[in-house]
Amino acid sequence: MKLHVLIEQDEDGMYVAEVPALPGCLSQGATQEEAVANIKEAIEGWMEVMESKRKIDPTQMIEVLI
């Protein structure tokens, strides 16, 4: 899966990472590399929570490329 991640440096110098396609999926780090590592963990956690809320039938899924 490919997702776009926005990374911005805040006024305190921390790097904040956000995944616009996943509402509420945010993380941060002291460096850009740390923020990327942390957002990867946040994405995994976000997906686990969403999948546990709604069981998805894999036969109903398709892949769409834009």
UniProtKB/TrEMBL annotation:
InterPro entries named in the record: HicB-like, TA_system_antitoxin, TTHA1013/TTHA0281-like
Entries under Pfam families matching the protein: HicB_lk_antitox (PF15919)
Domain HicB-like antitoxin of toxin-antitoxin system: residue ranges: 5-65
PANTHER family named in the record: ANTITOXIN HICB, UPF0150 PROTEIN SSL0259
Protein name: HicB-like antitoxin of toxin-antitoxin system domain-containing protein
